[in-house]
Amino acid sequence: MAAFTSIAIGVGLALSAAGLGLQAYSQNQMSEAQEDAEEARKKQMNLDSIRRRREAVREALTARSMALSNATASGAADSSGLQGGYGQIGGRMGQAVSGVNQSEQLGTDIFSANAAYADAASMAYLGQGAENLGKSIASNAVGMSKIGSTLFAGGGNFTDMRTDSGNGLW
Q1: I need a surface site. Which of 59, 118, 122, 148 has the fewest CB within 10 A?
Q2: CA distance 158 to 170
Q3: pTM for this structure?
Q4: Which of 11-20, 93-102, 131-140 has the highest mean pLDDT?
Q5: Sequence-distant contacts of 106-112: CB under 8 A, at least 24 apart
Q6: For 158, which DSSP code?
């Protein structure tokens, strides 16, 4: 019966090691998928930022054209009022573009933090799996020590394996 117990412990440890390997592989696949998704969201954010900057410039150009048209229609095309209006329009455009740039930078920082978190989580899961395997080995150390003596009793003659009671294994 001791031989069977030793074999069962050995099989259990082998399965634990295989489970750890599978867990590490799966965590790596999950991490890569999450990185791909984050990268796609980051590209989407960058495209949206470009679109919003262009929209701010378009609005400023439209406002400048309308200001010039109105000033020309009222005979004030050469006035300082038109130049002041241009300044206000440019200031609003600068604020809009600055806001887009700040939002884009914050988004980039968030994506970087998410990537660092995903990497750390993968390492934590791998460490947890290694810890569980170590606990399994430590809790079965006595039984494991019997595997070698049971399997190789009699100089490796597997047909003459004996249990603690002296009866044959089979």
Answers
A1: 148
A2: 11
A3: 0.62
A4: 93-102
A5: 107/42, 107/45, 107/49, 108/42, 108/45, 111/38, 111/41, 111/42, 111/45
A6: G
